[in-house]
Amino acid sequence: MDKNSLAPHFTTALATRAMQVETILQKLLDERLRAGEIARPERLMAAMRYGVLNGGKRLRPFLVMETAALFGANEEAALRVAAALESIHCYSLVHDDLPAMDDDDLRRGQPTLHKAFDEAAAILAGDSLLTYAFDIIASDETDLDAATRLELVLSLARAAGPGGMAGGQALDLMAEEQNPDETGIITLQAMKTGALIRFACESGAIIGGATREERERLAEFGSAIGLAFQLADDLLDVTSDAAHLGKAAGKDAAAGKATLVALHGIHWTRNQLAGLVAQAEELLSPFGDKAEILKQAAHFIANRES
């Protein structure tokens, strides 16, 4: 299956979920004060909205909602968890784009937040999005029992923190000075990119009250498509251009960063992507036809063009 044979149902579902997430994020980031808040500074809120409401496929929220749907979970609760995850993902992009990190001027075809506002605004917007994500999940408005919300908060903190995404970014910066070996690259990518995608898939199982085996299976599915996402990203950095990507291309090579594409080449990478998609489909096999849209998601990730 290639990108041209993806079912229309998948494309529609991805767009529908993106619209749902966009709508709830707009509400969460409006000017209304929540209990315990003193004020919502206008410029800060504008910067947060700029960092979040700027398009994107909303793939991670899609995965939260579709894995939760496997178990007939509370859709509104899943949507709020999806919005929390997207807030953390977007905070990471805002901070990654800063001059001290990846120093990017474009994100999704638009000026990065620190270019549209300034560096201080970008730092504070990122800090606020990160913090607010846990507020969203912990709130009573997320209609799950307290133990489930606590498990989600802990799992997301582990995925986003020093042992996950933030730690992966630290390793990525270190890689500019000293290129890691293949094992190091895989570890870096599993943390920086894979951890949040793994959480997206596992969180749906947590929300849906899945068995331990089901939860572990979906977490492994998340790991497989997380690696596929990064491999596809590295491949695009080599083969695409800024007009298609909506951000600068060729930056990894220019920075001398070690990637699996640089290590093994384009042909090897495409073979690996095919293998990861097959692995993802196998992990979903016990769920039968209910998981068809998630299988489509694995193909979409491996064959994406931006």
TrEMBL record:
Pfam family of the protein (one): polyprenyl_synt
Any one GO biological process: terpenoid biosynthetic process
NCBIfam families: FPPsyn
Database matches in InterPro entries: Isoprenoid_synthase_dom_sf, Polyprenyl_synt, Polyprenyl_synt_CS, Prenyl_diphosphate_synthase
Keyword line: Isoprene biosynthesis, Magnesium, Metal-binding, Transferase
Matching PANTHER family: FARNESYL DIPHOSPHATE SYNTHASE (PTHR43281)
Protein name (record): Probable farnesyl diphosphate synthase
Cofactors named for this entry: Mg(2+)
Assigned protein family: Belongs to the FPP/GGPP synthase family.
GO CC annotations on file: cytoplasm
Organism: Paenochrobactrum gallinarii
GO-annotated molecular function: metal ion binding; prenyltransferase activity
SUPFAM superfamilies hit by this protein: Terpenoid synthases
